[in-house]
Amino acid sequence: MESECSKIRKLVNNHMIKKLSIPLKYIANHPLTKSNKWSGYFRFFKWQLNAKAHVQTINWFGDLKLNINKSMHGATGCIYVGLPEFNDMSFLLHFLKRDSFFIDIGANVGVYTLLASGHNKCQSISIEPIPQTYQYLNKNIELNQLKDKVNCLNIGLSKQEEELYFTNDGDTVNHVVPNKANNTTTVKVDTLDQIFPQQITNDILLKIDVEGFEYNVLKGGNKVLKNKNVKAIIIELNGCSDRYGLNDGMVDELLIQNGFKKYDYNPFERSLTVLEKFHTEENTLYLRESALEEISSQLKSATPFIIYGKNI
User: Fold this and answer.
1) Residues 193-250: pLDDT tens digits?
2) Containing H/E element for 190?
3) InterPro entries from the xrefs (predicted)?
4) Which of 5, 202, 232, 251 lies at a C-alpha separation of 20 to 30 Å from 101?
5) Contacts of 8 (CB under 8 A, 6+ apart)
6) CATH number listed for the domain at residues 85-311
7) Is 149 helix (H, G, I), strand (E, B) or coil?
8) What is the 3-state secondary structure (H, E, C) of 75-127?
């Protein structure tokens, strides 16, 4: 008869296998590692063995460096596969020019901001509401000597100025909650229209990742959405808006009303494909319809970047 210890050991092993299978499957299917998944596996297991509770500095992409520790699960994909959100990050790298402007709403530790201002050399505003995460964001900006290019703001965004409670123990999934608790932080909240630099006349890209609060952020940016210089928006619509009595279809409708349309981007072909529905398990790319020809031309003519020996 199977002993209790054997049962427990089997349960633990099954849990570990299931836990490991998720990142390994991700590595095996990622566009940058699926042709050489063993290199990704090697980076994964090396990190698991060497990861520390304190922050470590790694060489990331090009000349960029990243401060990271084992609790930053959202950023560890940069170690395993280089560009975790490959299509969206590649769009950013192909779209933004030195004289463009990038606004990173829900920046976390700043990987998108580092690509925009560190690699493409454009100006950025990087917004992160959680104080500890904001410190990591600032350290990454300082590490890459980008303080002259990036304005970091430790605030949240909504449809009006106020104070809101945010969870502070969820890494990339920290979000607004209705009540104060042991795991919450009170955050000053502004609007996108208020923080938007009105003097910008060049191409603008927004990235919005706020765990279900996207509609409120955009409702506080009515002027921004009408600004013709805002050519593209990368936004996460993952169903979390339900927790606020909203739905992601409201975000989709609002963006369509303001002249945007949904697209998929293929970085290898530098091609855009119209989407009928927004993505629910990854970001969705919205492009200003009136600027589509200009955007397409810009993507085609962009200087290639090199990662893992691939010229993209």
Assistant:
1) 999 998 888 999 999 999 999 999 999 999 999 999 999 999 999 999 999 999 999 9
2) strand 184-190
3) FkbM_mtfrase (IPR006342), SAM-dependent_MTase (IPR052514), SAM-dependent_MTases_sf (IPR029063)
4) 251
5) none
6) 3.40.50.150
7) coil
8) CCHHHHCCCCCHHHHHHHHHHCCCCCEEEEECCCCCHHHHHHHHHCCCEEEEE
